From TrEMBL:
Record-level Gene Ontology MF annotations: siderophore uptake transmembrane transporter activity
Species per Swiss-Prot/TrEMBL record: Arcticibacter tournemirensis
Protein name (record): TonB-dependent receptor
Gene Ontology biological-process entries: siderophore transmembrane transport
Protein's UniProt keywords contain Methyltransferase: no
Protein family: Belongs to the TonB-dependent receptor family.
Entries under PANTHER family matching the protein: TONB-DEPENDENT OUTER MEMBRANE RECEPTOR, TONB-DEPENDENT RECEPTOR YNCD-RELATED
Length: 999
């Protein structure tokens, strides 16, 4: 990616900053000065409190002693003083030059506003399951995207980061798995569907997670997996405020495979060969030489750097007057890859503008524009393949010889470092441009008309130049070019009414919306057999290919919401949405998605005891039920599609072939019925808040292609044929405490969900190669499906009497399997069991923050209480697939006649490994873990150190991401790794320091 765009943006912003601050510098200042202190009820200074003159842009912050000094327009003006965790206070100056202001704690803000679909609500009046993310907990984390920062912060929000490769996308879902199709939540950014990966975290004002039918049904389509609402920051009235954040970090792997030393490897290799009926490979002298002189290589460590830098810059300017406010921001991120090679990594630039203007008392407009460019430079191969090759290489071979040339002990393509350093490049450039225009007209008091139109353009270009490497035996070169262009249009028109009639509060809104998407893609490739230094040449071309296609979809919608409450005590909400999707034929396109919810604030009742109010001043119970939809399938599944391609060669002639995709004209919306019941409680003068929810989601008419006999000769057409039930619970708590001069904040979340396939018309799916999963009635989606191990065969008598895998004769030290049907033969479905599941359960997070004077400290623990992961191949098996490696240190604890209770079976190679390599729960590991996700220490400089900048604040900090991990995983693999051979880029531990400057 070119750096010029970001540099220009930042340069322009800096120029604007200094120009703005430069204007008016020489004007005569005739204002008066008022000073004072801000303290709490215990007469302790409050540091960093905001002090502003009402109706002007004049403001400052208190210093380490709670003192402030402010120039005001008049000694009869009024000041507003505010600080997080305290009630804001307005104080008339009344001619006094010195003031002492006492703020009272307000541990829970009853007027807190939460963003919901197409609007906002007071938190106390919510009837649905909505979690608002505390943005303070996300500040200054050395993450590449906001998804990583959200992990563990919100109950019911599941995020799995299996690797930290630049450009990777963590998996995300809300309240578990609800369907056999896409389980990603709907992400709405400033009213328009967007990519959460492309939002700069410092631009975000608010994140709301909508989890039940009451909160999501207003979005109808695609809301069955929950909704994440992101609102970006807006301008502020007053003199321009500038914020600059910088961080520099070093990334290191959290875990690396625990490879044995070369001399230990040689001894274990000899043992495996003898166990397999073969002669030893290494003599005693060779083994002794390995110990004394090496080599003792770790190929996995050789392909990675010991550390890789990461840095980010974030700059924003916000200001305005009574008519117009603005915010302009720019950001730049540079994340280097841990892989060896030429400048691999991610470079991202963000630019955002938010402008709001009041044309009159009735009419206002808001314009938002955002642009993101992601540039990723990577090696030209598959990461899984590179790691596989590096893992297989034993430590007895150097990765380069004494002349500095690459070695290829495993044959062609076996040196992953060569591939990284000389095997070519894959470069991608993603541009994401969006613009939104909002308008609002106040018709009469309480009645408003709002309109929005948004457009989005996404361009993705990829160039791959894969080169053959001299000396490797590989002569194939490949060049690939591909591009993607997505255009989206979103618009809506909403009429809303909000009025209070005595003790009755009524609000309603109705609207129409449209969303359209066009996706164009093109790809071409060429394979040649020339030398590594000349990859394109017509006469040497051995294979070429071109593809081009375009898809379109659209949704027309109408929606309505009604909110009513009596004395803010009895609360009711009703939502209704009608969606018409182009993905279904006429007659099936439209579906209605209603929801209703009730809440009762018991603590507001007259009968609520006064004695109980002192202990539990707030108590609310709530419940909701409703329907939401899912249409995430291909765009033309309801009609016949013709594919034309070069399918067959007849001599030197290539014949074009047309094939028809199977289709089903009768498919309709997949639907999820959601039920939720919950309670919100506040204790001890609102110092402790607690929420609990229980939910059941029933998804029916699931869009799925049921298995067909192989004679059918094609994929099965989609039909509405499945049902899944997902149920679970969520707990969250927050506690605020002040001891002496230290403010403590402790918050915790705990949640669990599980799913079960209720109906699949008697069919089932068996999927996977390395790892086998099954989708079957009565079991969770994608449960592991394999043999069940039953210890080891300890002697020849047990071998003779025990069940055997079909066609294999085991030996003592081999894994024994349970004979499910009792026929003495272990084979396929007859003896396979449904075992474990990869989905995490019992997710928890604990966040602690303390502030004392100018110091602040925070730490965040996150973990999973129950999860299985099935590791296969190179990640766990010694001498996998008849290769010379790998051998890990845990393999030392292997079965021998003198060590029958080992954790690993006898060592073998080749065909002798077939029994132990069979797919069984022996290789399924407990992937539960506890991780110190983030620890941070910050210091805010005294105001006198930065008084040359008006109203300035400078904070420096140091932080570590993924600092500690506690897990029982074998082999040095991270517990968030995915199923299979462990052939993935590691999760990073990141050490970072940075600064926040505001003025």
């Amino acid at each position: 990616m070119k750096k010029s765009l970001t540099k220009i943006c930042i340069g322009v912003l800096l120029h604007i900053c200094f120009c703005i601050y430069g204007t008016g510098t020489y004007a005569q200042d005739t204002r008066s000065v008022v000073s004072g202190t801000v303290v709490d009820a215990n007469n302790e200074a409050i540091i960093g409190a905001s002090v502003k003159e009402n109706g002007t842009a004049s403001g400052t912050m208190t210093d380490i002693n709670g003192r402030f000094s402010l120039k005001v327009s008049s000694m009869n003006a009024t000041l507003t003083i505010s600080y997080i965790g305290y009630k804001a206070k307005s104080v008339p100056i009344a001619g006094k030059q010195t003031l002492k202001i006492v703020l009272q704690e307000s541990r829970v803000d009853l007027d807190e506003i939460v963003v919901v679909g197409y609007g906002t609500q007071k938190k106390v009046n919510l009837t649905g399951a909505v979690s608002s993310v505390n943005m303070k907990n996300l500040e200054n984390k050395p993450v590449v995207n906001v998804v990583e920062a959200l992990q563990g912060t919100t109950p019911g929000l599941t995020i799995q980061q299996s690797n930290s490769m630049p450009g990777s996308r963590p998996a995300i879902n809300i309240r578990g798995v609800n369907t056999l199709n896409n389980n990603d939540p709907l992400v709405i950014i400033d009213g328009m569907q967007g990519d959460i990966q492309n939002v700069n975290i410092t631009d975000i004002e608010n994140i709301s997670v909508l989890k039940d039918a009451s909160s999501t049904a207003i979005y109808g389509s695609r809301a069955s997996n929950g909704v994440i609402l992101i609102t970006t920051k807006k301008g502020i009235k007053g003199k321009p405020r500038i914020a600059y954040d910088y961080s520099y970090a070093l990334q290191t792997p959290t875990f690396m495979p625990d490879i044995v030393d070369s001399w230990v490897y040689a001894e274990l290799r000899n043992e495996a060969l003898v166990n397999s009926g073969r002669p030893v490979q290494f003599g005693a002298d060779q083994i002794r030489d390995f110990r004394q002189n090496g080599p003792n290589s770790n190929w996995m460590e050789e392909i990675y750097r010991s550390s890789a830098p990461q840095q980010s810059h974030n700059l924003s300017i916000a200001g305005g007057n009574d008519k117009t406010t603005y915010l302009v921001s720019a950001a730049y991120l540079d994340q280097a890859s841990l892989f060896q090679g030429p400048d691999y990594g991610l470079k991202r630039g963000n630019f955002r503008v938010n402008l709001e203007t009041n044309v009159s008392d009735r009419l206002k407009f808001n314009v938002l524009a955002a642009y993101t460019r992601n540039g990723i430079k990577d090696h030209a191969y598959w990461t899984e393949w590179l790691i596989e090759q590096a893992t297989r290489m034993p430590p007895i071979y150097p990765i380069k010889d004494e002349n500095g040339d690459y070695t290829f002990p495993g044959g062609s393509n076996s040196n992953a470092l060569a591939r990284l350093e000389q095997g070519g490049l894959r470069e991608s450039q993603n541009d994401d441009l969006s613009g939104i225009l909002n308008g609002e007209f106040k018709i009469i008091d309480g009645l408003k008309l709002r309109g929005m139109i948004g457009a989005k353009l996404y361009n993705n270009r990829l160039k791959e130049n894969r080169k053959a490497i001299e000396g490797s035996g590989d002569k194939e070169n490949r060049m690939t070019n591909s591009s993607q262009r997505i255009q989206e249009i979103t618009s809506n028109l909403i009429l809303s009414y909000d009025k209070k009639f005595g003790n009755h509060n009524l609000s309603a809104l109705g609207g129409l919306s449209y969303e359209g998407n066009t996706d164009n893609r093109f790809s071409t490739f060429r394979v040649t057999d020339r030398s590594p230094y000349d990859i394109m040449g017509g006469e040497q071309t051995s294979n070429t290919g071109n593809q081009e296609w375009q898809t379109e979809w659209s949704i027309y919608s109408a929606f309505f919401r009604l909110n009513y409450n009596f004395k803010e005590k009895y609360l009711f909400e009703f939502n209704l949405r009608d969606d018409a999707s182009s993905k279904f034929k006429k007659g099936n396109r439209s579906a209605w998605f209603p929801s209703a919810s009730l809440a009762w604030r018991v603590s507001e009742e007259d009968f609520y005891p006064e004695s109980l109010k002192g202990i539990m001043p707030g108590a609310k119970i709530r419940s909701s039920i409703g329907l939401v939809g899912n249409n995430r399938i291909g765009d033309y599944q309801y009609q016949a599609n013709v594919n034309v391609g070069q399918g067959y060669n007849f001599g030197s002639n290539v014949a074009s072939v047309a094939t028809f995709d199977p289709y089903n004209a009768d498919i309709k919306w997949e639907t999820t019925r959601m039920f939720n019941v919950g309670a919100d409680l506040d204790f001890f003068s609102n110092a402790l808040s607690f929420s609990a929810d229980y939910f059941i989601n029933d998804t029916y008419d699931i869009l799925v292609g049921l298995p067909l006999p192989g004679l059918y000769g094609s994929a099965a057409p989609i039909q509405n044929a499945g049902e899944v039930r997902t149920q679970g619970w969520e707990l969250s708590a927050r506690y605020n405490l002040k001891t002496g001069g230290v403010r403590h904040t402790l918050s915790a979340t705990l949640s669990d969900s599980k799913n079960k396939v209720s109906d699949l018309k008697g069919s089932y799916f068996i999927n996977g190669t390395d790892v086998t999963t099954i989708i079957k009635e009565g079991y969770p989606i994608n449960s592991y499906y394999a043999y069940r191990s039953d210890g080891y065969f300890q002697n020849a008598d047990e071998v003779a009497k025990g069940p055997h895998l079909a066609g294999i004769t085991p030996k003592p030290g081999d894994i024994r399997y349970l004979d499910k049907n009792g026929d003495g033969i272990i084979k396929d479905d007859d003896d396979r069991f449904v075992l474990g599941n990869r989905e995490p359960r019992l997710l928890y997070g604990i966040n602690y923050r303390a502030e004392w004077k100018n110091l602040d400290f925070s730490m965040f623990w996150q973990g999973v209480g129950q999860r299985n992961v099935w590791l296969r191949g190179e990640s766990v098996e010694a001498f996998h697939n008849n290769n010379e490696g790998p051998v890990f240190n845990f393999h030392i604890d292997r079965w021998t006649p003198s060590h029958p209770d080992a954790s690993y079976p006898r060592l073998t190679v080749g065909a002798e490994s077939a029994n132990n390599a069979a797919k069984s729960n022996f290789w399924i590991e407990n992937a539960a873990y506890l991780r110190l996700k983030n620890v941070q220490l910050g210091y805010t400089m005294p105001a006198k150190w930065t008084n040359k900048l008006p109203n300035s604040r400078l904070r420096i900090y140091a932080t570590v991401q993924n600092a500690l991990t506690f897990s029982d995983m074998k082999g040095g693999w991270d517990p968030e790794t995915t199923d299979g051979g462990g052939r993935i880029y590691p999760v990073n531990r990141t050490y970072s320091f940075g600064l926040n400057l505001n003025f």
